Amino acid sequence: MILERLRALRAPEPAHIVVPHGATEFTVALRRSPKARRYTLRVCSGSGEIVLTLPARADLRTASDFAARHTGWIAQRLARLPEMVTLDHGATVPFRGVPHRIEHRPGMRGTVRAELDDAGAPVLAVAGSAEHVHRRVLDFLKREAAKDLKAAVARHAGTLGVAVTGITLRDTRSRWGSCTAAGRLNFSWRLVMAPPFVLDYLAAHESAHRREMNHSNRFWRLLREICPATDEAESWLDRNGAGLHRYR
């Protein structure tokens, strides 16, 4: 009974710990996993979040000591991350593989237009109030991603003679696309920032799963038949995919 009362009075486990590193400090998110057999540190490429995964019964003091011993590694990983870019006036964001500068034009009609400025440079011209620039650019990119993906999926699904029940846009970090058993395809909206052949490849990849719900040799042969740029697109994503998550 006393033990149960002590447990009830025990403070809830923190979601983060803070570990010092020289003149600065790192905030480390804690993730308990029943499958974990050891401590694992990672730095998320998109957000820069530091995550420590620990076994279900691990002691917090030991976890904190583990993180403190690896602050040098954390610092190195953070230093390698590309600088985060806010989708605001003056920033440059890739749109269909081409860098576009975001230009706020409060007197312009409409919302967002992709065009060339007076010097012939690509811009995303954004109408309305300054505080809405970020949201309008994000909405524009998602709309264009949906339009491009719907067209590409319709083309590849038609070639394959398969049915797709719907398309959903997400902001996933672990995968660029997925296909459910019910025929619904999910994609990262960030693909609209990549060159068109990369977006087309992902549309072909997930459409091909409607014929082969696996990654067998037969699947890859089918995919390369409808998308000859498969290897080129895979290589591009390996080199540049993580960088698409720096825009927020």
Your description of this structure?
The protein is α/β, with parallel strands linked by helices and 248 residues long. The chain has helices spanning 2-9, 60-69, 71-80, 133-160, 196-208, 217-226, 230-240, and strands at residues 16-21, 24-33, 40-43, 50-55, 92-95, 98-104, 112-116, 122-126, 166-170, 177-179, 184-188. It has a 4-stranded mixed β-sheet with strand order 1-2-4-3, covered by helices on one side. The protein has a 4-stranded mixed β-sheet with strand order 5-6-8-7. It has a 3-stranded mixed β-sheet with strand order 9-11-10, with helices on one face. The protein is globular, with a radius of gyration of 23 Å. Helix 5 (196-208) packs across helix 7.
Q: What are the key terms here?
A:
Zincin-like; 2 domains; four-stranded mixed sheet; 7 helices
Quick take:
The protein is an alpha/beta fold and 248 residues long.
- In the CATH hierarchy, the architecture of the largest domain is 2-Layer Sandwich
> Major sheet, described briefly?
4 strands, mixed
Distance between the termini: 51 Å
- Helical content stands at 25-40%
Strand content: 15-25%
Topology:
Layout: H1 2-9, E1 16-21, E2 24-33, E3 40-43, E4 50-55, H2 60-69, H3 71-80, E5 92-95, E6 98-104, E7 112-116, E8 122-126, H4 133-160, E9 166-170, E10 177-179, E11 184-188, H5 196-208, H6 217-226, H7 230-240
Parallel strand pairs: 2-4, 6-8, 9-11
Antiparallel strand pairs: 1-2, 3-4, 5-6, 7-8, 10-11
Helix pairs in contact: 4-5, 5-7
